[in-house]
Amino acid sequence: MPEAVTKAMPELAEIQTVIDRFARNGMRGALLPLLHALQEEFGFVDPQAVPLIAEALNLSRAEVHGVVSFYPDFREQAPARHVVKLCRAESCQSRGSAAIEAELVRRLGIGMGDARPDGQVALEPIYCLGLCAIGPNALVDERPVAGIDRAAVERIVAEVTA
C-alpha cells in the first residue's frame, strides 16, 4: 500500500483542503489532477467528495461521478491492504492465466473483483501490462510479477496473507 494512504474514512474538512489546492489556483482542467491528489492522499476518492468537487470546479455531480467511475484506477472505497491484479489480456490468456486465476481464487478464498472481508487482500483484473512475451503476468501491490506459474502463486499468496 502506498505510504501516502493514511486513513480509510477522511473527514470532509480534509477532503476540502485537497480540493481547495486545485480550485483556488484557477487550474484549467483540474478534475483529473484533483482526483489523483485525493486518491494519493486517502487511498480512494470518497463518494462524499463528489458534490464538493462539483461545486468547487463548477461541474455537475454527474460529470464528476462519470470521470471517477470511468477510469478503473480510481477507487470509490478504501483499498485492501494488498492488491493482486492479474492480467486477463489475450496474450496472458493464451499463456495460462485462467489456470493461475483459478488457483488464486481458490487459495485466497475470494472471487475476481472481490476483497476479503478482513481487508487484507483484493483480487482484481487488469488488461495488459506490456510483458506479453513472458506471461501470465500480474501486479502485486503495484510490483510487476512476470511468468507466473504455480510456484509464483505460492509466493504471492504467502506474501499477501502474511
What does this structure look like?
The chain is α+β, with helices and mostly antiparallel strands and 162 residues long. Helix content is 44%, strand content 12%. The protein is built from seven helices and five strands, in the order ααααβααββββα. α3 packs across α4 and α6 packs parallel to α7. The longest helix has 12 residues. The N terminus is likely disordered.
Brief characterization of the structure:
By secondary structure, this protein is α+β, with helices and mostly antiparallel strands. The protein is 44% helix and 12% strand. It has 2 domains: 12-70, Orthogonal Bundle (Arc Repressor Mutant, subunit A), CATH 1.10.10; 82-161, Glutaredoxin.
How far is the N terminus from the C terminus?
Answer: 14 Å
Q: In CATH terms, what is the architecture of the largest domain?
A: 3-Layer(aba) Sandwich
Taken together, the total number of domains comes to 2
Which consecutive residue ranges, at least 5 long each, have pLDDT under 50? 1-6
CATH superfamily of the largest domain: Glutaredoxin
Structural class category: alpha+beta
- Our count of helices gives 7
Mean pLDDT figure: 90
Helix content: 40-55%
Radius of gyration: 18 Å
Q: What topology, given as strand order, has the largest sheet?
A: 2-3-1-4-5
The name CATH uses for the topology of the largest domain is Glutaredoxin
Order of helices and strands: HHHHEHHEEEEH
Query: What's the level 1 CATH class of the largest domain?
Result: Alpha Beta
Strand content: 5-15%
